[in-house]
Amino acid sequence: MRKLVFASCIAALWLTGCTKEESDPFATIKPDESRFTKVTLVEKLNEPMEIEVFANKDVMIIERAGKIKLYQNATGETIQVGFIDVYPEREDGLMGLAKDPDFENNHWIYLYYAPKNTSVNRLARFDFKDNSVDLSSEKVLLDVPVYRDCCHSGGSIEFDANGNLFLSLGDDSTPFESSNYNPIDERDFRPENVDAQRSSGNANDLRGAIIRIHPEADGTYTIPEGNLFSVGTEGTRPEIYVMGNRNPFRIAIDQHNGNLFWGEVGPDAAVNDSLRGPKGHDEFNLATKPGFYGWPYFVGDNKAYWKFDFAKEESLFQFDPTAPVNSSPNNTGIQNLPPTQKPLIWYPYDESEEFPMLGTGGRNAMAGPVFYRDDYEDSEVRFPGYYNGKVLFYDWMRNWIFMVSLTENNELDTLEQFMPSTVFDKPMDMQYGPDGALYVLEYGTFWRSQNDNSGLYRIEFAAGNRKPNVKVSSDKKSGSAPLTVDFSSEGTVDFDPEDVLKYEWQFGKAGTSTDKNPSFTFEEVGVYEVSLTVTDQDGASATQRLEVQVGNEAPEVELAWSGNRSFYFGKEEVSYAVSVSDKEDSNIREEAIDFTIDFVPGGYDLIQTGPEEEIISVGETLINQAGCKGCHGIAEKSVGPSYEQVSEKYKDDSDAKDYLINKIQNGGAGVWGDTQMPGHTHIDVSKIEEMVDFILAISNPESSKSNLPLNGTFTLGEEEMAEGYYVVQASYTDQGANGLAPLQATEQLILRSPLVSPVFADAFDHVAKANDDGKNYVRFTEKAAWFKMNQLDLKGIGKIEFELDPGSIKAKIQVRLDSPEGKLLGETALVDNSIKAGKTWGIISIPIEQTESTHDVYFVIQTEDGISIWNTFNMNSLRFIR
Q1: CA atoms within 13 A on the CB side of 562
Q2: Which part of the chain is the PKD domain (predicted)?
Q3: b (16+ CB within 10 A) / e for 745-774
Q4: Could you tell me if 414 and 401 are in contact, meaning their C-beta atoms sit under 8 angstroms apart?
């Protein structure tokens, strides 16, 4: 029989002349990121929550404040098709959306929302016809009683292949009054929302669970077979499929096997506590069958919390994941809970030992759909078979997306980042459309804000001809009229080398050009949107834009600095001079020039939000790095007040600085509403002082630290080995001109310790980051591998010292300028394991040729040995020596 089947296959291939691999060249080969294009469909949404892609590629979008919008694929326009009057505070509002599996015939959609003037959140069905949601057609399936004005509402809706509806529900419990550990405060005088045992740990409550029901045509629902508890089981709710969840914000269903995935947003505790239990972790979970997933007794890979007596502040015992017991007086369900299941992936704020590729920082885990190529139409943008069976796992705070594949036993197999070079601004929901492209909804920077960088995007795949990747730049973005600007398309690439490209520039309404790098003169004052559209010979095109302001030329700031412009070397007196000129401002007032030198303490890395943006304030930098802008904008109110509001409130209060430092450290509520701000005891008080200085200076610049004189000397610190860096910054904002807004110019130096970890280099080629025994280092994994540090000032530096672990490899490290093959400044001798002299790491130093100007510096390995990911050459640090 096997021979017969094989012969039939050969005959079929002979007749068609095409194998599956030939029709899908990326069935098993990972495609390069260049084959994906992120296309903008809608911008500037107001707190978008979930999407639903229809058969005609229209996309329904819900916004938390109640609007229901429709992106129309045929026209590219977005219209409002409905509005639900919701309670939009805290995490409530219009939260969940799904279309019925038989939508093409019945036109039903399902919404999960917080009805105004109620204490319930509601799952309801509506008719959607003729591009309008018929509110009068509402069928209420389920009301979930909630503690209004709390937290963790969940609300993600998904259907499986059998027509069962899954709805995720958060624990409705505040984390802040339990020091960001597990909220299990059982004291009878406390509000109910401080004990998640009444919700997530309660088998008789739907909160903190993902429920599974089967909607019926009459607007009711039935219970499918196989939920966690059978119908009629005392002390349980039969709707529950999985329980023990804290905040399962986004869920996904594998339509082929029914697997349920969800991201579990974990608690905020930053450190382990001997009295309470483990630090917070987020989780990426998989349920192949019903189960209990631990909260509020366990987190991460079943790390156990302590049973904590809040009255006596005593730890009684650690919970047992094999036999969890809910003995809370607030529990209305069974006491003996099912054994706790483990997540697929778990990770804390700091680096994960198990999954270091997930990075560090804020956390907000979410689950996206599973891809199967044959489920979608044979379109030009359909994803390839390489992603078959892989589920999307993404993080709202960290702005990355991973593809996760499983073994046949539903265990974690591979974890690979998807489109790592592409920017995703708070990815909120994802869905594959009928065309097999990935539709991505992005929330934008600030929580509870209408963000300009929010939007709906379609990620298209190109197996054959690819769209050009367009880059635009200009030598000027502002200036006096008439203004001549040199524009450049440098960096624009088409990854199909045979393509001939056509360039079309549009200079607002002022003119056009088909040159590759045109020069254009704007004669009149105004703000011009300049666009470049690049089209290949097959008609595939892409567009990029930039803005040019004509009528006000930016000031020029110069900072003369006698010391090295990249490093500080212990105690050293440096002379400096700041000068400013501006074409429109006839009188430059020295008091309007800001010049500061600040030291940013160790533990925080320099973070810039874009290639052209600079740090304007050390305090604002620390706020960005601490993740505070997830809840507070500079001008935008979010979960908490804007920093402008805070600054205005306290600008005349002499005790404001001490008060705000204490508030940030210890948290609290009541000043701006009932929302509890968590404490930040893990942040050093000196950093909090910088944050408060920045906030108070918004409305009262005089409250900030005094500017330094514009000419003089400054003594850098004594600690050459200290972590952290100096920010030397001079800035001036002009007075505006011709009706155009003022422009600011800044000259800035970042001076860091000459002892540098290569982990923080700016670019890597076949160099991997690693950690072991408390060290963070890099591994060279191929011959001629390199890492790069951007724009280093090597003036006065005559030697570089390396800390190395060569393993079994003999190699030398080269130092080159501007490219891996650029000018050789110096190289080590051939280094082998003898350098270590019985130690874990060895040290070698080399002289380098001195250079006066700044350059990109490459560190390249050269070896004849068999270097690989298993046999690596390692570097822990390098020191620049004068």
Answers
A1: 12
A2: 468-550
A3: bbbebbbbbbbbbbbebeebebbebeeeee
A4: no
Secondary structure (3-state) at 493: strand
Tokens of 875: 């570097």
Which pair of structure tokens corresponds to residue 750? Answer: 């970042």
| C-beta of residue 281 within 8 angstroms of C-beta of residue 354 | no
CA–CA dist 348, 356 (Å, integer) = 10
C-alpha 426/C-alpha 304 separation (Å) is 30
Tally the C-alpha atoms within 13 A of residue 33's C-alpha that lie toward its C-beta: 11
Per the structure block, which two tokens stand in for 838? 């019985």
**Residue ranges of domains in the chain, CATH in brackets:** 473-550 (2.60.40.10), 556-752 (1.10.760.10), 755-881 (2.60.120.260)
pLDDT at 20 over 60: no
pLDDT digits (tens, 9 = 90+) for 464-494: 888 888 889 999 999 999 999 999 999 898 8
Distance in angstroms between the alpha carbons of the first and the last residue of the chain: 78
Strand pairing class (593-600; 572-581): unpaired
- How many Å apart are CA 788 and CA 794, to the nearest integer? 14
Helix (H) / strand (E) containing 697: helix 685-699
- Return left, alpha or beta for 702; rule: phi > 0 is left, psi -120 to 50 is alpha, else beta: alpha
Query: Is residue 419 a contact partner of residue 438, using CB atoms and an 8 Å limit?
Result: no
In the predicted model, what is the mean pLDDT of the chain? Answer: 88
Binned at pLDDT 50, 70 and 90, residue 538 comes out as confident
pLDDT tens column, 691-721: 887 788 777 665 554 578 999 999 988 654 4
Q: What pLDDT, on the 0 to 100 scale, is given for residue 18?
A: 41
Q: Contact 578/595 with Cβ under 8 angstroms?
A: yes
Q: How confident is the model at residue 618, as a pLDDT?
A: 64
Cα–Cα dist 270/276, whole Å:
12
Task: Tell me the C-alpha distance between 177 and 160, whole Å.
Answer: 37
Under DSSP, the state recorded for 336 is: B
